[in-house]
Design goal:
Blueprint lengths: L18 H7 L22 H7 L4 E7 L13 H8 L3 E3 L2 E2 L5 H10 L3 H4 L18 H7 L3 E6 L5 H5 L9 E5 L8 E5 L2 E5 L7 H14 L8 E6 L23 H5 L22 H4 L6 H34 L6 E7 L19 H4 L3 E4 L12 E2 L3 E2 H11 L6 E3 L2 E2 L23 E7 L2 E7 L3 E6 L4 E5 L17 H14 L20
Parallel strand pairs: 1-8, 1-9, 2-11, 3-12, 4-5, 4-8
Antiparallel strand pairs: 2-10, 5-6, 6-7, 9-10, 13-14, 15-16, 16-17, 17-18
Helix pairs in contact: 1-13, 3-11, 4-13, 8-11
Length: 519
């Protein structure tokens, strides 16, 4: 494992539907309000047979937050999100970012693939390493007649590599360019550059929401369903977030919003400023204890996070209310996720997200399915392990079994599996499932398997960690190398080795010669 302290010192730790439908899925990230452009950003030839199948089918709204940890995903902080999405849906308390880093996680959703199949292991160089850039979820849905929209942040370094041009498959492209700020940034609006300044109405969360409202209004009364990926940059930190938020913290829209959280207490679980880290990898074991100055900075970041998420929560409520007013709520499946979690002093980690401990790996994850698209009631909560790569086949499944193909015979094998069995639908979910997280970045390289009970981590320098999440949910006791856990460690190590080479989900696709299935 690389030493996090060498990248800018202590404050830069920051590591930085049915089985048949599922089989079809597996064959194979000034100021301008305006209204939605009617221009088509990136047209795809529609397959008439697929379009006939999907006509009148469900809409999909996928809301992705940037760096939101589970500690801020609570009804007292996000009442509108819980009212509209979580409470009437299913809250996946073991939703996993595979892996906990922006670009690989987003690429996983676009492709349904783990990094060793998508090609994206890191934020740098990011988008350029993604395989099959024109064979992704928006392309498959557009080919099946869906109206597709990307609003917000896309994949890291897309703008630097592709410029203002929309990525393949998007009818509407409203993507932030090279400055992912809350104020004073530019947007590619279907290929045309637009600048937003420092006025209150230029706050990016609000701008993205207004455009999203325009987009969903455009689907009211039509038979052509839509797929909208709404990717806020909240609560990602920025260099100069404004008065009251210090540096490299999220930026609330204004001082009044921040004032509401000035007395919010920083969560301090048992892992906070962990007393004994001698059993952790060297990069963690040599971290100093968090001192009073560090504590004040982390607490400031926490309060600015809550204020930033409060603004996003209000906007999400407005968007959901628009779906209801336009009579589309009953035909819209809604996902709420984050691309990774974040650290607020757990295990002495000052901030960041990349390590595969629970604060970074486990993320907010909820899905709301209207009654017309399920057989029974949705579970209020689920402890089954799901990840970003499962959202992809779930969308395709509910869309009517849309294949993961940009053309006949040109298909992508998907590593995730449809969550329909966990959402009040039919089918079975595998017991004892493990999800893979793998990263190859300057800050460190590892692979990990996360099951309901265990997380096993193997670093490329040979270090390893094993935690029993049932008995030790705060990951204070590393069991790797302990005789009492040798059988478990051996089993998980073997499973991890297979996952690192896997392709396609078991029970969904046929095995490839020499490649194990993902399970």
């Amino acid at each position: 494992m690389a030493d996090p302290s060498k990248h800018g010192g202590r404050r830069a730790l920051i590591l930085g539907a049915s089985l048949a439908a599922a089989c079809a899925v597996g064959i194979g990230c000034g100021s301008g309000a305006g209204t939605e452009s009617t221009a088509t950003a990136n047209p795809i030839r529609v397959d008439p047979t697929l379009a006939q199948r999907t006509a009148g089918g469900p809409n999909f709204l996928v809301i992705l937050m940037d760096d939101q940890a589970t500690n801020s995903f609570k009804p007292r902080y996000m009442p509108q999100t819980f009212r509209w999405i979580v409470d009437p849906g299913t809250n996946f308390v073991d939703g996993i970012a595979a892996p906990p880093l922006c670009c690989p996680d987003r690429a996983g959703f676009l492709t349904g693939n783990y990094p060793h199949n998508s090609g994206v292991f890191s934020n740098h160089p990011g988008y350029s390493t993604m395989r099959g850039k024109s064979n992704t979820l928006p392309v498959w849905l557009a080919r099946a007649g869906y109206r597709t929209g990307l609003i917000g942040k896309y994949l890291n370094h897309y703008y630097g590599q592709e410029g203002l041009a929309p990525a393949p498959g998007w009818d509407t492209w409203f993507a932030q360019t090279n400055r992912e700020q809350y104020y004073d940034y530019s947007i590619s609006d279907n290929g045309a550059k637009r600048h937003y300044g420092s006025a209150r109405r230029d706050y990016s969360t609000d701008v993205f929401t207004r455009r999203a409202i325009d987009f969903v209004r455009g689907g009211a009364g039509g038979r052509r369903p839509f797929f909208l990926w709404l990717t806020y940059n909240a609560p990602h930190g920025v260099k100069n977030p404004g008065p009251g938020c210090g540096n490299h913290n999220p930026a609330p829209p204004d001082g009044a919003t921040l004032d509401r959280f000035q007395n919010a207490r920083l969560p301090q679980p048992p892992s906070f400023n962990e007393r004994d880290v001698s059993d952790k990898p060297v990069a963690i074991a040599k971290l100093p204890r968090i001192d009073a100055r560090d504590f004040r900075h982390i607490q400031r970041g926490w309060r600015c996070t809550l204020a930033t998420m409060s603004a996003a929560d209000q906007d999400i409520g407005n968007l959901m209310a628009t779906l209801k007013r336009t009579r589309q709520l009953g035909r819209t499946i809604v996902f709420y996720m984050s691309d990774n979690g974040f650290y607020f002093g757990e295990h002495r980690i000052f901030s960041g997200k990349q390590y595969p401990y629970e604060p970074g790996l486990r993320v907010p994850y909820a899905v709301r399915v209207p009654a017309g698209y399920r057989r029974g009631a949705q579970p209020v909560a689920s402890r089954q392990v799901v990840s970003n790569v499962d959202a992809t086949p779930t969308v395709l499944d509910y869309a009517g079994g849309v294949p993961s193909c940009k053309a006949a015979g040109r298909c992508r094998r998907i590593d995730g599996r449809s969550m329909r069995p966990l959402l009040g639908g039919g089918g079975r979910w595998p017991s004892g499932r493990g999800v893979l997280a793998e990263i190859k970045a300057d800050q460190g390289q590892y692979s990990a398997i996360r099951t309901r009970r265990w997380v096993y981590i193997r670093y490329d320098d040979g270090e390893s960690e094993l935690y029993d999440l049932r008995r030790d949910p705060n990951e204070l006791r590393n069991l790797a190398g302990k005789p009492s856990a040798s059988a478990v460690e051996s089993n998980l190590a073997a499973r991890l080795a297979k996952l690192r080479r896997c392709s396609g989900a078991r029970g969904v696709v046929r095995p490839l010669p020499g490649r194990p299935l993902c399970e």
